[in-house]
Automatic annotation (TrEMBL):
Pfam family, one: SnoaL_2
Domain SnoaL-like: 5-106
Species of provenance: Streptomyces galbus
InterPro entries: NTF2-like_dom_sf, SnoaL-like
Coiled coil regions in record: none
Name of protein: Nuclear transport factor 2 family protein
Length: 112
């Protein structure tokens, strides 16, 4: 689970569209479900578009894992943060993740 979460966080930091899409295709199931306070989407295309939109809204924002990953039975939870590289975070949240056959099937995010 730690590796999956690490790759998930890294995906939010990939600015190159083709590189990000390759990472999404490798990490998420085709019908991944993602929800946070702003959206409830299904599928890799929608997730890719949402990540790109979020990156455009927070230029220079770097996502980072802000806690250890707690997991059991292909389920996990963790805290993340986003802010300028080397600076204080301007947003913090926590996510719950469900993995299926080593890939993210569902992810639910909450903002602090």
């Amino acid at each position: 689970m730690n590796t999956v979460v690490k790759k998930y966080i890294e995906t939010w930091n990939i600015l190159d569209g083709a590189e990000r899409r390759a990472a999404i295709d490798a990490l998420f199931t085709e019908n991944v479900e993602y929800a946070d306070p702003n959206v409830h989407i299904t599928g890799r295309d929608a997730l890719d578009a949402y990540i790109a939109q979020t990156q455009a809204q927070i230029p220079g924002g770097v996502f980072a894992l802000a806690s250890e990953v707690s997991s059991h039975h292909d389920l996990g939870r963790f805290t993340w943060q986003v802010g300028p590289a080397g600076g204080a975070p301007f947003a913090v949240g926590y996510d719950f993740i469900a993995v299926e056959d080593g890939r993210v099937r569902r992810l639910y995010g909450f903002f602090s």
